[in-house]
Amino acid sequence: MSGKPLKVSEVNQYIKRVLASDFILTNLCVEGEISNFKHHYSGHMYFSLKDEKSRIRCVMFKNDNQCVDINLKDGMKVIASGYISVFERDGDYQFYVKNIRESGLGDLYIAFNKLKNKLELEGLFDEAHKKSIPRFPQKIGVVTSSTGAAIRDIINVINRRFPIADLIVYPVLVQGEGAPKEIIEGLSYFDNREDIDLIITGRGGGSIEELYAFNDESLARTIYSLKKPIISAVGHETDFTIADFVADLRAPTPSAAAELAVPEVDSLKCSLNDDYNKLINSILAFKEYKSRELEYYKNKLDYNNPETKLNQNRQYIDSLFKDLNKNFNMKIETYYREIEKLGDKLNLLSPLSSLNRGYSILLDQDGEVIKTVDNLKIDDKFTIILKNGMIEGKVVKINKGEFEDGFK
Asked: What percent of the chain has pLDDT over 70?
C-alpha cells in the first residue's frame, strides 16, 4: 500500500465530486418501472426504477414532487430526469429525480393484473369457496423463510397469544425463480398431514419483484385446491398478491396473520369467566323461576285438592245450615208473634171475654144462642151462662124495644 489512507467519508466525498463532474450523470434521463414506492410523511418520495436486468434507487424531494400531476405507484412505467449522486452517510449512490412523467405500466404489473383477472373469472377468489379458520387450532404449519423476520414475528405472536398451539415450520425460498415450487411443496406437505389444523404462508414486505413468487399461477391453483384452511400474509398492509386473493383469509402482515390464526389466552380467560358468571346467574335465575313456578302449581294443587274442596263444601253446607236455622227461627218467631196477635184478637172476640167483663149468654132449650126477644115467647125456658155458672129460667114477660142508655 502506498500513499496516505483516506477516511470512509473522504472516499464518499471524492466519489460524489467525480459523479458531479460527469456531464451525463448530472443531466440524466432514465426509463424504468417503479417498484417499492413510498411517499414519506415528510413529503419526500422514495422508490426504485427497474428493468428486466437491474434497478436503481431513487429519491424525489418534496420541492420537486409538488408539481407531479400523476399518481405514482408500483408497476408504473415512467421516464425520470435528474442526476446521480452519493448519499455520503451510507455510501449509496442514487438517482435524484427532478422531473417524472408516465411512460406506461410495467411488465410485472401488467402480468399481475392479467393473471388476477383470469383467476377471478374462473372463480378462484369466490367467497363461497373459502374455508373458515378454526377458532382453536392445535397445530399450525408455517411455510416461509426460516431466516426472515416473518417467521420470528409469527412465532413471537403465537407464543404470546396462544402458547398451547404447536408450530411446524417448512422453510422455503420466498423470492427468486425456485420460490414458487418450494412454497407449493410446503403447502402440499402440510395439506397431507392429518394433524395440521391451519396453514400460514407469507413473507415480509418488499418490492413487487421481491413479492412476485406469490403471484405465481401454479401456487394460486395449489392454494385453491387445499383441503386445509390457509392464511396468506405477504408483505405490508398495502401489498397485495394473487395468493392473498385465493387464500381463505388475507392478513396484512405476518404478525397480523398470527393474531388472526389464534385467540388470545388472556381474552379467553376473561371471556370464560364472563360466560361462567353468566351461566351461574342464569342457573340461579332459572332456579328462582322454577321455584316460583313450583310454588304456583303447589298452591294450585292445594286449591284443587278434593279434600280441600270437601272441606270448603262442608264449610259452605255448615254456613247454609246456619243460615237456614237462623231463617227458620226467624220465621218461627214471626209466626209466633202473628199467632199471639191472632190470639189476642181471638180472645178479644171470644164470648168468654164478654163473660169476664160481666156479660152473660142466653141459650134456648135447644142450646142455641138467643140473640133477640123475637126468638122467645112466654113460658119458654132458657139458660143463662155467667162467668161462674149457669141459671135456669122461664119467660114470664117480654118487653120489646131498643136498648140505648136503657130501654125505651
From this structure: 96
User: What was the pLDDT predicted at 104?
Assistant: 63
pLDDT at 124 over 60: yes
Instruction: In whole angstroms, give the CA distance from residue 144 to residue 14.
Output: 43
Closest CA to 45 of 67, 72, 16, 78: 72
CB neighbourhood size of 77 (10 A): 18
Q: Is it the case that residue 206 has pLDDT exceeding 80?
A: no
Of 119 and 16, the one with more pLDDT: 119
| pLDDT at 278 > cutoff 80 | yes
Q: CA triplet 237, 239, 245: central angle to 5 degrees?
A: 100
Residue 180 CA to residue 215 CA, distance in Å, equals 9
Q: How far apart are CA 340 and CA 332, in angstroms?
A: 12
Instruction: Return the closest-CA partner of residue 152 out of 162, 137, 167.
Output: 167
- At 408, the pLDDT band (50, 70, 90 cuts) reads very low
Amino acid at 1: M
H or E segment to which residue 12 belongs: helix 8-21
pLDDT(227) > 50: yes
CA angle (121 as vertex; 116, 127 as ends), nearest 5:
85
Q: What are the cell numbers at 226? A: 387445499
Q: What is the pLDDT of residue 82?
A: 93
Give, in order, the Cα–Cα distances in Å from 271 to each of 160, 240, 280, 282, 332: 18, 34, 14, 16, 84
Amino acid at 163: P
SS3 label, residue 359: coil
- Give CA–CA dist 153/384, Å, rounded: 151
pLDDT at 209 over 80: no
> Tell me: the pLDDT tens digits for 168-186?
999 999 998 899 999 999 9
What is the Cα–Cα distance from 211 to 180, expressed in whole angstroms? 11
What is the rounded radius of gyration, in angstroms, for the C-alpha atoms of the chain? 64
Q: Rounded to the nearest 5°, which phi and psi values hold at 360? A: -135, 165
* SS3 state at 180: helix
CA 215, CA 14: separation in Å to the nearest integer?
43
Q: How far is CA 165 from CA 149, 220, 346, in A?
A: 20, 27, 120
